[in-house]
Design brief:
Layout lengths: L6 E7 L5 H10 L5 E5 L6 H14 L3 E5 L4 H8 L5 E5 L1 H10 L4 H13 L6 E7 L10 H20 L2 E6 L2 E4 L2
Parallel strand pairs: 1-5, 1-6, 2-3, 2-4, 4-5
Antiparallel strand pairs: 6-7
Helix pairs in contact: 3-5, 4-6, 5-6
Length: 175
Amino acid sequence: MKEDAGRIVFILGGAKSGKTGFALKKAALHPGKKAYIATAQPLDTEMTERIERHRAERGASWDTYEEPLKISGVIQEIDGRYGAIVIDCLTLWISNLLHSRAEVPSESEALVSALKGMRGPSETYIISNEVGWGIVPANELAREFRDHAGAINQHMAEAADEVYLVTAGIPLKIK
């Protein structure tokens, strides 16, 4: 990574653990414009309302990019234009990829490559759910999801400059 390149901060935790709030607070400390890359899709009324509520909470100081599949392309497109970028979240992205029958490993590699190739000087905060502490899922698709999530989380943690685990709203720096 070049000296002036952006830094990668990976944030893991359980559902509703405070990951996004932590990422947004960290990102707010950076000067300049902020970007939020959302992987959620408004597939039902509840999710549509949730997306609208989160967009309103971020406010006008954030540019939002809604991309359920090709987040590496968005990163390449916006590289160098923001002081901080938040990607929320990888586990929802994996679900989107599986449902679209995309090649998850190649999309994961494209994402890491795009992140490592950033010119910066932004900080990129990547959010993902920790799925390895649960039971073994009962069906094949759920096990495939869990396996991809575990592999991508490991790959992202390796590529990251910093890694945090957030539980009950408390971040713990683990790398």
